[in-house]
Amino acid sequence: MLRFPMIGLVAGLMLSTAIAAASDKPSDPQIAHIAYTAGDLDIKAAKLALEKSKKETVRAFANDMVRDHSAVNDKALALVKKLNVTPEDNDTSKALVKQAEEKNAELTKLTGEAFDKAYVDNEVAYHKTVNEALKTTLIPSTGNAELKSLLETGLKIFEGHLQHAEMLAHGSHK
Amino acid sequence: MRGAIGAALAGLFQLALAFPSQGGELVRVKITDLAFSPAEITVHPGDTIEWVNEDFIDHTATETSETWDVGIPAEKSAQLQFTRAGSFSYFCRIHPGMTGTVHVIAK
User: Fold this and answer.
1) For residue A18, is it within any domain?
2) Helical residues (DSSP H) of chain B, grouped into ranges
């Protein structure tokens, strides 16, 4: 019974550790890279869900994730181009990618309801952790006002995703 | 199933929009920074609400029990005509923290 919530919990803790590593005041190019990577990884998870899930509500959620995170990342790319900033890869981004690959490998082995539950639980854990990192580390560390504003908008969007994922996890979103 | 019913009902509402009743007013609700503004609005039967989405992401205006469900694409608008009196709470299906209420009262 505890297996899937535990997967989400462990994923959240690992992700927290990865993002905590960025707490030494990351630079704007690093923050841009972390934020873009976090969005891109959620798009990949959503695409996996669209391959594997047959449940209408899970597929609708996954489609929402692809569309919203793509829109935010498109804005981020346009902004860094305008600011002439090159996003800089860093240990946090690398850790995020590594953990997402491990999670992807776990999810790939699952099917049916087991997959749906594990995907949704992970979305809850992932958005909680990323949102917390945005609030406590990434947004306060951002120097450029436009990048900060985009991250603040992103946070509002991702808080909506967290609520949506929690509703799915609790079965209250039909 | 429920989605199909919602889509069908939304279709009926849209059909009504194609032939708006005489005398109804167009009332705008802005969507900015993931919030409906005004969040609470009062209209009369026959009036049409137009949600103007100024955000760069899609939203919906979905009645709480999903009797109507209006998709509002990024930086676009969508309309729904209200033909009967009542109070309708709604939210965005994609970002459920966004909520609003429409009161439809007879003139």
Assistant:
1) no
2) 2-18
Helix then strand then coil, in percent of chain A rounded to 5, is 85, 0, 15
Tell me: pLDDT of A17 over 80: no
Is A68 close to B57, i.e. CB distance below 8 A? yes
Q: Please give the tally of structural domains in chain A.
A: 1
Do the interacting molecules here have an ipTM over 0.90?
A: no
Model confidence over A27-43: pLDDT tens digits? 999 999 999 999 999 99
Beta bridge partners of B27: B49
Sort out which chain A residues have CB atoms less than 8 A from B33's CB and list them. 153, 156
Q: Residue B94 and residue A173: Cβ atoms within 8 Å?
A: no
Task: Give B-chain residues touching A167 at CB under 8 angstroms.
Answer: 96
Structural domain boundaries, residue A124: 3-11+27-169
